[in-house]
Every structure is written in structure tokens, then in C-alpha cells.
Design a protein that fits this description.
Helices cover about 20% and strands about 30% of the residues. With about 280 residues, it is of the alpha+beta class. It has a single domain, classed as Ribonuclease Z/Hydroxyacylglutathione hydrolase-like (Metallo-beta-lactamase, Chain A). It has a seven-stranded mixed beta sheet. A hairpin with a 2-residue loop joins strand 1 and strand 2 (about 5-10). The structure holds zinc ion.
Length: about 280
């Protein structure tokens, strides 16, 4: 998809079944085809898509969220399945070509692909020439959570391998609530899901798109004003979501969802009951 001069792609790592004990299994998409998104969201384990975003403008190759790091570790059995590397390869890129990495927050399902373990069991930075842009608040909250975890359901923090980013001075800690990454790409701190959660606004030549991270993880969450027990601060999540979605509707913006199983992107519309829906375009 094109947003002005930017080419924007969703890189699907696949569909995963996440269990309450943190176990993760990759799922056969055929199994998913037959069930509705609604049904899947109600089952005891949860099925999620994992879709990092690649933005290119000929000069910059920007990656938003790095996924689970599926197949990246040296001893992985999944090296040839769809993962960050094989996905970049489709666009003629390798991890070395990435110039910027943005992490919406540091939950492992959004950040684990930032590093991998090599043949000598050493942690390495996956995108060695990129800086990794995170909110400073998120880093300190994650450190705190490693010692005293808050009781929220869903993905947790696993910083062990992310310390490598710190050690190699790859982390850029943002303190501004709104930060221009490059002209046309803005990082906006929303908080809510986690205190340092940020989303990405892509804007060029009158076209706009938003990457919403876990503020609105799927189409199903458009009209639910918090993710129940999954947000650290549900009130802030509701406030931020209301504001951003109202603006996105006005701007006729394209929305990109990270965790969708069926519909991964689309423009907003309102149905006859004034609920937000995605416009049917195809
Ligand atoms: Zn999360």
C-alpha cells in the first residue's frame, strides 16, 4: 500500500495460539479459516496474528515492532517458515538494511524479534545498523515489572535479551509525547496498554495511516473501549483510543492492525448504529 511517498507493508509472522501460561504455538491457517474472529477470541487460549510493519521511502527502511522472533534463533526449527527474515527477503531486504526500528512497547510479542541467539549461544542484535526507538517510560516500567509484575493478562516482559540493545547503545529513549522519526512519520505516546505505549502516524501528500499497536490490536477492538484486563490503565487507553479513532475517521486514514487474524487493515466508517466499522473496499 502507498501512503504518499511511503510504501507500507505488513509482514505476517503467522497466526499463533497463546496460552495463559505463556506457551506459544504456531497455528495452521486452515484451522483458522473455518472459525470466525469472534469465536477465536472467546476460546480459552487466544489466537493472534503477528504483523510487524515495514515502511520504505527509497532512503529509509523502517520496521515497526519486531514480532516474536520466530525462527531467528540459531537452534530454531522454524528457520524456513514465515518470519522476520524471510518476510524482509520478499522485498529484497535483509535485517542489515533496516535503518530504524520502532517498538510500540516492550511486551515480548512486539519486541522479541529485536534480538536473536547465535550458534555460540550469544544474544545478537537482529537489525545491527538500526537504532531502536522506544519511550523512556516504557523501559523503566518494564524494568520495574521484571521485579514486581502487575497482575494483567496477556503478554509480559522478557527483557533478558533486550539488555543487548542497551549494551550496544542501540536504544533511543524518547521522552516527548510526540516525536518526529523522519519527516512524515511521527511516534505518538498513548499510554494505556502500558505507560510507554506508542503508536505510529504515517502522513504524506494528503494520505494518512496509523499503526495502532495494542491500543487497537484488531478490528474487533474498534468499539470496545478497553481490552478488559489487558490494559495497565484502561481509562487512559479509552481516552487515547477515542481521540485517535475520531481523528483517523476525520482524516480518512488507513488503520494497520498488529494482531488481526482476518482483516489486517482498512479505513474507518460508521454503521447505522454509529459504531466504528472498516469500510468494505475490496
Ligand atoms: Zn502488549
Amino acid at each position: 500500500m502507498n501512503i504518499g511517498r511511503f510504501e507500507v507493508e505488513q509482514l505476517s509472522e503467522g497466526i499463533f495460539e497463546i496460552f495463559e501460561d505463556g506457551d506459544i504455538r504456531k497455528t495452521d491457517p486452515d484451522h483458522i479459516e473455518d472459525s470466525s474472529e469472534d469465536e477465536l477470541l472467546r476460546s480459552s487460549s487466544s489466537f493472534v496474528g503477528i504483523d510487524p510493519v515495514l515502511i520504505r521511502d527509497g532512503k529509509h527502511n523502517i520496521l515497526i515492532d519486531t514480532g516474536l522472533g520466530w525462527g531467528l534463533d540459531h537452534r530454531s526449527h522454524f528457520e524456513n517458515t514465515s518470519n522476520l527474515k524471510t518476510n524482509l527477503d520478499i522485498f529484497g531486504l535483509s535485517p542489515d538494511d533496516i535503518t530504524h526500528v520502532v517498538l510500540s512497547h516492550l511486551h515480548f510479542d512486539h519486541s522479541a524479534g529485536s534480538t536473536y541467539v547465535d550458534g555460540e549461544s550469544r544474544t545478537q542484535v537482529t537489525m545491527p545498523y538500526a537504532n531502536y526507538f522506544i519511550q523512556k517510560k516504557e523501559w523503566y516500567f518494564a524494568l520495574e515489572q521484571m521485579e514486581h509484575p502487575t497482575d494483567v493478562i496477556g503478554a509480559g516482559y522478557n527483557l533478558d535479551e533486550l539488555y543487548k540493545l542497551m549494551a550496544e547503545e542501540k536504544l533511543v529513549m524518547i521522552t516527548d509525547a510526540s516525536f518526529e522519526l523522519i519527516p512524515g512519520i511521527k511516534l505518538i505516546r498513548t499510554g494505556g496498554h502500558t505507560p510507554g505505549h506508542q503508536i505510529v502516524k504515517i502522513e504524506d501528500q494528503g494520505e494518512t495511516a496509523y499503526y495502532l499497536g495494542d491500543l487497537v490490536p484488531t478490528e474487533f477492538h474498534l468499539n470496545q473501549y478497553s481490552m478488559r484486563k489487558m490494559d495497565i490503565d484502561p481509562l487512559q487507553a479509552k481516552k487515547a483510543k477515542t481521540l485517535i479513532l475520531r481523528q483517523a475517521l476525520e482524516e480518512n486514514a488507513y488503520l494497520l492492525f498488529y494482531h488481526s487474524i482476518h482483516t489486517k487493515s482498512g479505513r474507518l466508517d460508521k454503521d447505522k448504529d454509529r459504531n466504528l466499522v472498516l469500510r468494505k473496499e475490496r
